[in-house]
């Protein structure tokens, strides 16, 4: 299955095309620049792979949680492409993507993914993979007070809270700095083809976890 | 209808600058094929104004289903270009529409253009049966703007007058809010004004005794507040008083706009006026301007009522003119919160 994936939940703007015969990824640290960069990156990934729309089987996107504007850019771009190309969509948690990246890097299978949510809070999700990187189990993504992060002594952590909450990051037996990338979104999407939906069934939406009015 | 030497085009447009999600399809040969709008007014009403994050979240839910619905209503025509509102407006709201619009154009391999929301308002009367010919004076009065513009062609805009403080629509909204009339206030104020006694209060006509075409509406809003608070202190804060204040307020706005428009027409030696934007739905303002133009044997042009407030039909029209002139944007869909009409490029095919 050839999957074109987009991930813009943090300052990392990322596009990836992954399939049996192909693996092309582009990413750039680009705060507030996703609207400028994302479509040129999609274009470049396709031409680098020599791919046309008809070669893509599904679109995937990082649904969040993360920065709201970035999440809407990913959801909006995927909506436009899915409508224009008539492709199904697979939504993937951006926290799961970070956990998957940590697995790929270390081979370790249990991770708590932590993403800075600002205002003293952190988005978290716990993920467990098998030794092939297949996601076995995960908790639902949550918004918690940074001070509430209290991992078991043998727990691994991955994410971007090292600078904002060093004390919390230090509680993990192992900590990895990461932000979600599109390759992990694509890999996870390829594990779950049955979760693909058409625009007629569902409109791709971000996961916000925080209300719009506080 | 403007005759166009360029290739005709069928354009799909998306508007999402504030609190309405709208989609329209305009064909330069056949006119408007379909248009749909989802208003978020009820969502924001309990907060007494537009909550930006709430607006963005709703746009990203509603626009794609609106596109599908509008394409079906139009009979699934072949789309030659896509227009979307790129500013001015709420950044998150604009980006929601822009992301969908630009990606859809990319997927379909067709050109896309980011349209200036106020150019959309300004050209809205072009969708009517007797469109104005250039040059004309445009009065743009909406929730966020109050401008008098000389229009010599598409993209040929000269700002003659602006508000120094509140927009006209904002003053309507604030006047309504202080008397507990709900949001948005313009339609409520003009409805209540119908039963108001216009002899009871007299509101000032701000800035009319000063030369120039700039306007100011915050003083009027304060005058409303003072009048209402006095009525409250006297135990007179009832529905009749509300209606009387609405009437006096509406008359003052209408007179002020009329005087400024007359001055602009005289100064520029023109005799056609276009009035657009949400406040142009107001009956009293239309009556005053019709009177003015009848007296000087000129003509006033308005959009139909549903195209006075935000809609995608006006974006489709404006976008089509620019796309047909060969203008288009690259893959960047960054939005502009602020954007001057005077910075638009002129197009030359008229
Ligand atoms: N009948 C009416 N009389 C007076 N004002 C009205 C009437 N109907 C609508 N309005 C006002 O029009 C405004 C909405 O117009 P519109 O949708 O064009 O503005 P906007 O899109 O919020 O602002 P902008 O176009 O400047 O970005 C509101 O302020 C509303 O109160
Ligand atoms: Mg408007």
| CATH level 1 name of the largest domain in chain A | Alpha Beta
- CA-CA gap between termini of chain B: 11 Å
State the order of secondary-structure elements of chain A, H for helix, E for strand: EEEHEHEHEEEEEHEH
Strand content of chain B: 15-25%
Mean pLDDT of chain B: 96
Structure description:
The complex is a heterodimer of chains A (214) and B (350). Chain A has 214 residues and is α/β, with parallel strands linked by helices. Chain A folds into two domains: 3-93 and 181-195, Nucleotidyltransferase, domain 5 (2-Layer Sandwich); 95-177, Nucleotidyltransferase, domain 5. Chain A is built from five helices and eleven strands. Chain A has helices at 34-49, 68-85, 94-106, 166-169, 182-190, and strands at 3-7, 12-18, 23-29, 58-62, 89-92, 110-116, 121-129, 135-138, 142-145, 156-159, 174-177. In chain A, the strands form two sheets. In chain A, strands 6, 7, 8, 9, 10 and 11 form a six-stranded mixed β-sheet that branches. In chain A, strands 3-2-1-4-5 form a five-stranded mixed β-sheet, sandwiched between helices. In chain A, strand 2 (12-18) and strand 3 form a beta hairpin. With 350 residues, chain B is an alpha/beta fold. Helix content of chain B is 41%, strand content 18%. The mean pLDDT of chain B is 96. The relative contact order of chain B is 0.19. Chain B is built from ten helices and ten strands. Chain B is globular. In chain B, strands 3-2-1-4-5 form a five-stranded mixed β-sheet, sandwiched between helices. In chain B, strands 8-7-6-9-10 form a five-stranded mixed β-sheet, sandwiched between helices. Chain B has two domains: 10-125 and 307-343, ATPase, nucleotide binding domain (Nucleotidyltransferase, domain 5, 2-Layer Sandwich); 133-302, ATPase, nucleotide binding domain (Nucleotidyltransferase, domain 5), CATH 3.30.420.40. The A-B interface holds A 35-36, 39-40, 42-43, 53, 68-69, 72-73, 75-81, 83-85, 199, 203, 205-206, 208, 212-213 and B 47, 51, 53-54, 56-57, 60-61, 63-65, 67-68, 91-92, 95-108, 330-335. The site of adenosine-5'-triphosphate has 24 residues of chain B, from helix 4, helix 5 and helix 6.
């Amino acid at each position: 299955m050839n999957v074109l994936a987009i991930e813009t939940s943090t300052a990392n703007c990322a596009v990836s095309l992954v399939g049996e015969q192909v693996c092309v990824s582009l990413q750039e640290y680009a705060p507030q620049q996703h609207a400028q960069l994302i479509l040129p990156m999609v274009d470049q990934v396709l031409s680098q792979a020599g791919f046309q729309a008809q070669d893509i089987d599904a679109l995937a996107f990082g649904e969040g949680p993360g920065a709201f504007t970035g999440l809407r850019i990913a959801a909006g771009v995927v909506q436009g492409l899915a409508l224009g190309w008539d492709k199904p969509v697979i939504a993937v948690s951006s926290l799961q993507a970070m956990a998957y990246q940590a697995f790929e890097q270390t081979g370790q299978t249990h991770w708590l993914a932590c993403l800075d949510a600002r205002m003293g809070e952190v988005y978290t999700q716990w993920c467990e993979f098998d030794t092939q990187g297949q996601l076995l189990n995960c908790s639902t993504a949550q918004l918690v007070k940074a001070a509430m992060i209290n991992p078991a002594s043998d727990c691994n952590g991955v994410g971007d809270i090292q600078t904002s909450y060093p004390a919390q990051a230090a509680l993990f037996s192992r900590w990895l700095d990461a932000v979600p990338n599109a390759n992990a979104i694509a890999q996870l999407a390829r594990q779950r083809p049955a979760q693909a939906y058409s625009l007629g069934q569902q409109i791709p939406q971000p996961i916000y976890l925080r209300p719009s009015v506080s | 209808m403007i005759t166009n030497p360029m290739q005709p085009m069928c354009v799909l447009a998306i508007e999402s600058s504030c609190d309405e999600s709208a989609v329209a399809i305009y064909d330069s040969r056949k006119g408007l094929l379909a248009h749909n709008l989802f208003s978020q007014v009820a969502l924001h009403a309990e907060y007494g104004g537009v909550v930006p994050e709430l607006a963005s979240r709703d746009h990203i839910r509603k626009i794609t289903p609106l596109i599908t619905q509008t394409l079906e209503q139009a009979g699934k025509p072949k789309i030659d270009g896509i227009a979307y509102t790129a500013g001015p407006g709420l950044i998150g709201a604009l980006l929601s529409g822009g992301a969908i619009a630009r990606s859809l154009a990319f997927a379909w391999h067709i050109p896309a253009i980011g349209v200036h929301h106020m150019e959309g308002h300004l050209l809205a009367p072009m969708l009517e049966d007797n469109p104005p010919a250039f040059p004309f004076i445009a009065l743009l009065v909406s929730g966020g703007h109050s401008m008098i513009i000389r229009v010599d062609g598409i993209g040929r805009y000269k700002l003659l007058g602006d508000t120094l403080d509140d927009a006209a629509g904002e003053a309507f909204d604030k006047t309504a809010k202080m008397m507990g009339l709900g949001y948005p206030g313009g339609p409520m104020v003009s409805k209540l004004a119908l039963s108001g006694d216009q002899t009871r209060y007299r509101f000032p006509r701000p800035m009319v005794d000063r030369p120039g075409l700039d306007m100011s509406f915050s003083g009027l809003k304060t005058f409303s507040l003072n009048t209402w608070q006095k009525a409250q202190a006297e135990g007179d804060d009832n529905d009749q008083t509300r209606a009387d204040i609405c009437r006096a307020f509406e008359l003052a706005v209408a007179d002020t706009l009329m005087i400024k428009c007359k001055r602009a027409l005289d100064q520029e030696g023109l005799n056609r006026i276009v009035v657009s934007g949400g406040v142009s739905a107001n009956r009293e303002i239309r009556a005053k301007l019709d009177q003015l133009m009848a007296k000087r044997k000129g003509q006033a042009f308005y959009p139909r009522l549903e195209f006075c407030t935000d809609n995608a039909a006006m974006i489709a029209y404006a976008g089509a003119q620019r796309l047909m002139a060969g203008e288009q944007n690259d893959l960047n869909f960054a939005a502009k919160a602020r954007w001057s009409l005077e910075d638009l490029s002129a197009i030359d095919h008229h």
